[in-house]
Amino acid sequence: VGxxxxxxxxxxxxxxxxxxxxxxxxxxxxxxxFDNGMFKDKWKELTKQYDHKNATxxxxxxxxxxxxxxxPIWLQLDIS
Length: 80
Description:
Blueprint: E1 26-31, H1 34-38, H2 40-49, H3 52-66, E2 73-77
Antiparallel strand pairs: 1-2
Helix pairs in contact: 2-3
């Protein structure tokens, strides 16, 4: 999936699929980027006040305090 944390640089959350089970049914996988969708204005506010590194730090602190620093991961299966 790539990064599933707010900074997009760690993969904490994973889904394990045993070999020879449904692995050929997996169509897509990803992480739900809720922070970008729901808190875009907060990010814009911070990038006006701080450089990118510090804005990222402040945004991560904000997200950890209010929601989570982990994005939910998902997978799409072919169930036909």
